[in-house]
TrEMBL record:
InterPro entries: PDDEXK_13. It comes from Iamia majanohamensis. Residues 41-67 are annotated as: Disordered. Pfam families: PDDEXK_13 (PF20796). Residues 28-316 form the PD-(D/E)XK nuclease-like domain. This is PD-(D/E)XK nuclease-like domain-containing protein.
């Protein structure tokens, strides 16, 4: 797809150096396109433009940014959320903070491009409807056992808890499953505008725990960790390990788990990263999967038709393409 011109992006206050991905022109074009897409959605809905930074400090000179909303307005109106159920899920989550959480409410309310509010928009209809959530995940992943009894956003079973990973890893949304005498978890990470990049190598103490969970799981090919540590696949690995650590927890509470990374088909970085990550796993494992947002929306009945249409129009469709 042809990239947007600099003039078009400047006019929309969407020309941002951070969107450039050296050596990957397709990703640069994608990141610029979806930023502009959010700015145009904002304009179509009559919403004012926000700034960088989102909340300027005294004496700081902010600049306009087309993919943002003014923070005060965004917090009052919930304009970043497409459906009332998404806004309700946000309010519920903020009313129930988890220990040691890292949750940016500024991005949640005011950043149109952030994948955090996008996750609430995609799965918010399921938050208070266990039967609908169960039907949806079985439509998307028929082999998931049991039924959903809780949908938890920005969730970790225990941040900084050494019986899990001892870090702050969390799922964007977790579908907690009732398996009768035990529990299961379908943990999901959502991506939108993000790119991949090499990560800082963890400390020796944390790395020892990550190796332990990896080796006990039996999910990885021999020597796979050498292709994960400090690479652009490390964050996927750590999110996957959170599920695996739950299955291995001393309480034996968790009998089944899977980590799923969900991204737009246009995001070639994460499409490629998921493919490469999958190649490092043994063939029979079922604790990791990836899916495009488009594939989830294409499953009839998984989400309300109006939600799927509104989501496509905002996040996946440029003007003139139709929905």
């Amino acid at each position: 797809m042809e990239g947007l011109s600099k003039a078009v992006l400047l006019a929309a206050h969407c020309w941002e150096d951070v969107d450039r991905v050296p050596g990957r022109p397709e990703m640069t074009a994608f990141r610029r396109r979806v930023r502009h897409r959010q700015a145009r959605w904002r304009e179509r809905n009559g919403l004012p433009m926000g700034t960088q930074p989102i909340a300027p400090k005294p004496g700081e000179d902010p600049r306009p940014l087309g993919s943002r909303l003014p923070l005060d307005l965004a917090g009052r109106s919930g304009a970043n959320f497409l459906i009332p159920t998404a806004r309700a899920a946000v309010d519920d989550r903020l009313a129930q903070p988890e220990p040691h959480q890292t949750l940016s409410t500024q991005r949640l309310w005011a950043d149109l491009l952030s994948s955090m509010p996008m996750c609430f928009n995609l799965f918010g209809d399921l938050a208070q409807e266990p039967a609908a959530a169960t039907a949806a995940i079985h439509a998307w992943w028929p082999d998931v056992p049991g039924g959903v009894d809780c949908v938890a956003f920005e969730h970790s079973p225990g941040r900084l808890d050494a019986d899990y990973l001892g870090n702050r890893s969390a799922f964007d949304v977790a579908f907690l499953l009732d398996l009768g005498s035990s529990r299961g978890v379908l943990g999901i990470e959502t991506k939108y505008h993000e790119r991949t990049g090499s990560e800082k190598t963890p400390s020796d103490a944390r790395l020892a725990r990550y190796r332990e969970v990896s080796e006990r799981s039996g999910a990885f090919r021999p020597d796979a960790l050498e292709d994960l540590i400090g690479t652009d696949l490390q964050q996927i690995w750590l999110d996957h390990l959170l599920v695996l650590s739950m299955i291995q927890h001393p309480s034996e509470r968790w009998a089944w788990g899977r980590f799923v990374l969900v991204h737009p088909a246009e995001n070639l970085d994460f499409a490629d990263a998921c493919r490469r990550y999958g190649e490092l796993l043994v063939g029979e494992q079922n604790t990791f999967a990836s899916a495009t947002i488009e594939s989830l929306l294409a499953v009839d009945g998984a989400l309300p038709l109006a939600t799927a249409r509104a989501f496509r129009d905002r996040y996946l469709t440029d003007e003139g393409e139709g929905s």
